[in-house]
Fold these 3 entries.
Entry 1:
Amino acid sequence: MSKRALIFGICGQDGVYLARLLRDQGYEVHGTSRDKEMANTSGLQRMGVLGDVTIHSAALLDFRSVLQVIGDVRPDEIYNLAGQSSVGLSFAQPVETFEGIILGTLNILECLRFLKLPARFYNATSGEVFGNTETPADETTPFRPRSPYGVAKSTAFWTVANYRESYGIFACSGILFNHESPLRPARFVTQKIVRGAVDIADKLTDRLTLGNIDVARDWGWAPDYVDAMARILKQDEPDDFVVATGTSTTLTEFVSTVFDYLGLDWKAHVESAPELMRPTDIRVSVGNPAKAKAKLGWAAEVKMPQIVHRLVDAELERRQSKCVTQAAR
Ligand code: NDP
């Protein structure tokens, strides 16, 4: 019999790629959206998995709905990829961010405890928990988060560890650093840069306004990162893993790579606006994936600058197919 997976947040970037991976591995895939009738299924459609998954309505903050979906599906594996995922937005909506990430994770753990279901549980944590990382952070590096999002992810991490130790639940955290794909929404800076630069190349605008471009991040490729998630739940013992490329790139380099690829000079078009700066920011964020390599046999395959090239190519392709569709009407 095939294994059953339940993905909270299946319509998000990672949910879509994970659904495709697990389907290809022979799983029966279920997923949740807060309201399945209103769910944005465009990513699932684009990746050709929409017809192969079952979507349920579930709100992580509503214990009954979480209990209902876990009880109905009775999954072998549960992945929690739902919740507020924007660091920037977490400064504007800290309470919502805390509730969604911390209580949402707790609700799933409480359901597993209550139902005594032997399901394996993966929770999406973030490299944001470390704050500034002067040397690449690993699983032993202390947490010093610098955003409401990072604080909430830190609390969720320790909640998962506590339930694993207290109740013997097979619960794991993936401490994932930034990972990108064409499915990232436009509000994330990487997509803002790619779409803004293509707008400039298309002569739709002349300027791109960003916040602090001196920061450095460890950027990976989302399909690689969901592979790490699936591997984490296939271990003999539950454990936590840093998932990263091990290399950081400044946002300035990211910008210049995008503009170079389009044959543009970024300095002629990009400006920094103080109102787009965050109250606190991480200067350098980089992870050490040595444990993931040793225990999971995982390493990031797609790295910078290929990530940028793929994002720009996908955006050009998206606009091209939109034009073809409009012309056909
Ligand atoms: P997305 O934002 O693409 O997807 C998250 C999904 O959660 C959405 O599709 C939405 O589903 C649901 N959601 C959004 N906001 C809320 C909210 N306020 N309350 C409850 N549900 C919400 O995230 P990703 O796929 O990029 O990331 C998956 C997980 O991994 C997240 O927890 C994120 O914080 C974490 N992560 C991501 C990283 C990255 O670089 N992408 C890095 C490190 C961690 P619906 O509207 O259908 O309910």
Note: The pocket of NDP is lined by residues 9, 11-15, 33-34, 39, 60, 81-85, 96, 100, 124, 126, 176, 178-179 (CB under 6 Å).
Entry 2:
Amino acid sequence: MRVNRRVAATVASAAVLGLSLTACSSDDSDGSDGGSASAGAGDASEVEVFTWWAAGSEKAGLDALVNVFNDQHADTKFVNGAVAGGAGSAAKDLLQSRLQTNDPPDTFQAHAGAELQDYIDAGQIQDVSNLYDEFGLKEAFPKDLLDRLTVDGKIYSIPSNIHRANVVWANPTVLKDAGLDPSATYDSMDDWFTALDAVKKSGKTALSVATTWTQVNLLETVLISDLGADGYSGLWDGSTDWAGSDVTDALTDFQKLMSYTNTDRDGLDWPDATQQIIDGTAGFNVMGDWAEAAFEEADKKAPADYVYFPVPGTDGVFDFLADSFTLPVGAPHPGGAKNWLETVGSAEGQEAFNKAKGSIPARTDADTSDFSDYQQTAIESFGKDTIVSSLAHGAAAPVATLNAITDATSKFTTGASDLATYQSDLAAAVKG
Ligand code: GAL
């Protein structure tokens, strides 16, 4: 059974955020114990910052943050530890081997939610609650977000941004040439299939996609569309049955969507799929709103050069993820990491970084008046939509679960499994 998007939109945001980010169980106990008082004391001569923002618009975002950092902490040398590969597809494994061999960077990018919980459970990152007090951050972030970052009264990272993962990006000329109204939005997957058929008929790629993690990003938005916000969140807390017929329907829709995509997808990363929209070789693409930064970087203007709208059937739902910076146990330059974390949490850092990155500031007091039209829509949606946690970007499920889902998805989209096997592989991935 399909859940109408209007039903999904009536689910209270706070309740869903609570449901879907429970990996970080909050508790109000005092965070001053547990050795946090001195986190960040020590060598500040340099800071190795480990991210996957290695190229293109993502690097431009990082560069904007580094500019503020260099102003604020001229005595700490920034060392770029970026490892290429969207969504951390290569970085996360490398990071894990560095952490396991006691060779941590000074700070690394992690996703708020279940992914961060993994690092906490493994004892790989430090409580930085003292820095929240020192930098006055407890007042700067939304309470909901802080609660989700708090585990047993301790906070282990400082968020830099909030991204939305359920956005369709489209080329208006391609749509017009296919006989479609470029300002149209679609209420359901079925409505969208009609438009995709039109683009396909016009001879263009109807839906551009890239390597497996982008397919998982697509999958999660189909699950949100077809199951509704509540049903989707239930996939992560056990209240939605992965073996159910509504999941089968969603996977059938995902399979159909994949039939509209470019066949060279597995050799591409997200910027290549976005580029197909920029170049007008494809009609539609589903991607998180870091794509906004790629359009901006290519000097494209909406709505003349590109249009955007929530994935059909997900209007009123904000598929949430946040990048957050950590202080690893054994960081060689903890003072450098502290300085980096100060810049990440500062209003100036958040304004410069997010404007360039396509995301919205995690701070509620940042000045966003000169952010793009798209970003204004994201700010508005984040304020009123139902919030659900992104699977592909670490908010909904632990890394091991995401890896197993990614493997199952690759098997399915390369033709090595059928839909029934895919569904049972996904159920097994979540059971662990
Ligand atoms: C996400 C990350 C974003 C963006 C994206 C594509 O996981 O949170 O900041 O970098 O991957 O690489």
Note: The longest helix spans residues 212-237.
Entry 3:
Amino acid sequence: MYKIKYIGDPILRKKSADVDTFDDKFNTFLEEMTEIMYREDGIGLAAPQIGVSKNVVILDVGELVEDESLRIFINPKILSASGSSVIEEGCLSIPGVREEVTRPEIIELEFQDETGASYTHEFDGWLARVLQHEIDHLNGILFVDHISPVKRQLLINKKTIPEKY
Ligand code: CO
């Protein structure tokens, strides 16, 4: 019943709200969100991408990092960031586009798990990269906002992304 929202859909520009109820209904939502991520072959998914403006991020970088599997981040907040790395990104909401994006390499993150328990933890490498991409979604930001205006205009000219997005 949830479907992937694509670039141009206004919901991708909305700021999401914190989750404050960790009940069975919320857990069912997390299960459905997880199914969609795996079905769509994504390594990360933010709730707004399936039309739900809540601060929920899931990811699984198992195909890139050994011993990694599903991770769930509720109400994630980046406390600090350092370093810099350039990595090519893609997004389930922007099919057919892959572009290099520069972001901090290490982040300190405050978040809750699916039961509501709170954590503060440092992440680097692929986890830090995917987390920053997905947390951007919670703030209505898309990775193509981070590329150069010239590259972005080329994508619009080729109609790979809509003029108004
Ligand atoms: Co994305």
Note: The beta strands are 44-46, 56-59, 71-82, 85-89, 99-103, 106-112, 118-123.
